[in-house]
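Re: beginner question about structure tokens

> Can someone show what the tokenized structure looks like for a real chain? I only ever see the sequence side.

Sure, here's an example I had lying around. Input first:
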Amino acid sequence: MQHKTIIILGSSRPFGHTRKVVDYLISHGNEIDLVVLSDYNIGYFDYELKNEDDDFLPLLTSILRYDTILFATPVYWYTMSAQMKTFFDRISDVLIGEKKTMGRQLRGKVMGSLSCGSDQEIFEGFEMPFTQSAKYLGMTYIGHTHTWLSNAETIPKELVPRLESLIKKL
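And the corresponding structure tokens:
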């Protein structure tokens, strides 16, 4: 059965600020599932594919059932989290050799990105790995939504229209 949307959360704090934003999307959207990268053992990419027995390939297989993939990450040092970067690097595993057919299944899917930081501003260049990866993989990119939480308990009112707009794209 094809599912609509999956959010892939890459964070060092799986129940931190980014998760609060993700939980808002899940509670206000339709058919949105969640994968928390820190729940999986995903090794770094290596050219000899020594870590192909970790959790990456089974996880990617389950993700390929979805139409839309939203990557959610906190902003760490002006970029995506290490967990998210490792996941993106590992996509290389399915772009070479006998697993290429798996990588081709990303074509035509929809991709978006979500960030959460302590600042209302997102710096130029943050979105580039997402846009260029979508382009390279033949995915439709629906854009980036930046969020911030100054108070860990609530979503700022000015973010609600931004999040509602994102939900409509999912």
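Each token stands for a local structural state, so reading them left to right follows the chain. The mean pLDDT is 93.
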